[in-house]
Design brief:
Number of strands: 8
CATH architecture: 2-Layer Sandwich
Helix content: 25-40%
CATH class: Alpha Beta
CATH topology: Muramoyl-pentapeptide Carboxypeptidase, domain 2
Distance between the termini: 36 Å
Strand order of the largest sheet: 3-2-1-4-5-7-6-8
Shape: globular
Largest sheet: 8 strands, mixed
Number of helices: 6
Order of helices and strands: HHEEEHHEHEHEEE
C-alpha cells in the first residue's frame, strides 16, 4: 500500500462538493457500522478530520463520512496514517474513534485538527514498549485492536479534551500530563491519569 500524498486543499474542496452532490443519490448499504451520534442525525454531514502523525510528520485532511456512510478511500488513508510506524504496518481502526474525535472537537468549539501520538500498534511493538518500561503500556492494549488513539487537539488543552471525553462516557480516557496527550478508546468506560 502506498502512503497517501500530502493533503491538497483544492482536492479536499472538490471532494466536499462531490460529497454534497452524492448526498442527493440513494444511499447504498453502509460497509461500516454508524456510531450512535451520527445515526441519530446529531451531527451534520459530511464529517471530516485533520490528523498529523507526530512520528512520521504526515498530515491528512479528509472527509471520512458522507450521507452514504463511511468513505472507503478515506478509511484506507486514515488506516495508513494511523499505522504502527515502527513496523510500518497498518491495521483495522474502529470507526467509532473518528466520530469521537469529531464530536469532542465540536463540543469544544474547534475544528477537528489533531496531533496523533499513537494509533494502531502491532503486538510486537506493544510488547517492546511494555518491556522498555515507563508505564502506560497495557499487555492487552486496545491499540493492538485499532480501538485506541493517543492525541492532542489543536487549540485546546489536553485537560479540557480529557474532561469532555470523560463526560461523554464513550470509552476509556487516559490523561498523560507529563507527555501532554489524551488516550481515547472504544472499550469499557474508565479513566486514569499518569
Amino acid at each position: 500500500m502506498n502512503p497517501p500524498t500530502r493533503p491538497d486543499r483544492r482536492r479536499f474542496l472538490m471532494l466536499g462538493a462531490a460529497t454534497a452532490a452524492a448526498s442527493l443519490l440513494p444511499a447504498p448499504a453502509d460497509a461500516y457500522a454508524p456510531s450512535a451520534a451520527v445515526a441519530e442525525g446529531a451531527r451534520p454531514l459530511p464529517r471530516w478530520l485533520e490528523l498529523f502523525n507526530t512520528h512520521t510528520s504526515e498530515t491528512l485532511q479528509v472527509a471520512y463520512r458522507d450521507a452514504s456512510g463511511f468513505v472507503g478511500a478515506s478509511m484506507d488513508k486514515l488506516r495508513w496514517l494511523l499505522r504502527d510506524h515502527r513496523a510500518n504496518e497498518a491495521g483495522a481502526i474502529d470507526t467509532a474513534l473518528f466520530d469521537q474525535l469529531a464530536d469532542f472537537a465540536a463540543k469544544l468549539g474547534v475544528e477537528p485538527r489533531f496531533q496523533v501520538i499513537s494509533g494502531y500498534r502491532s503486538s510486537r511493538t506493544n510488547e517492546m514498549l511494555r518491556r522498555a518500561g515507563g508505564g502506560g503500556v497495557a499487555r492487552k492494549s486496545l491499540h493492538m485492536q485499532g480501538r485506541a488513539i493517543d492525541v492532542r487537539l489543536r487549540g485546546v488543552s489536553c485537560a479540557d479534551l480529557r474532561d469532555v471525553a470523560i463526560a461523554a462516557r464513550r470509552g476509556g480516557v487516559g490523561y498523560y500530563r507529563r507527555s501532554d496527550f489524551v488516550h481515547l478508546d472504544t472499550g469499557a468506560v474508565r479513566t486514569w491519569g499518569a
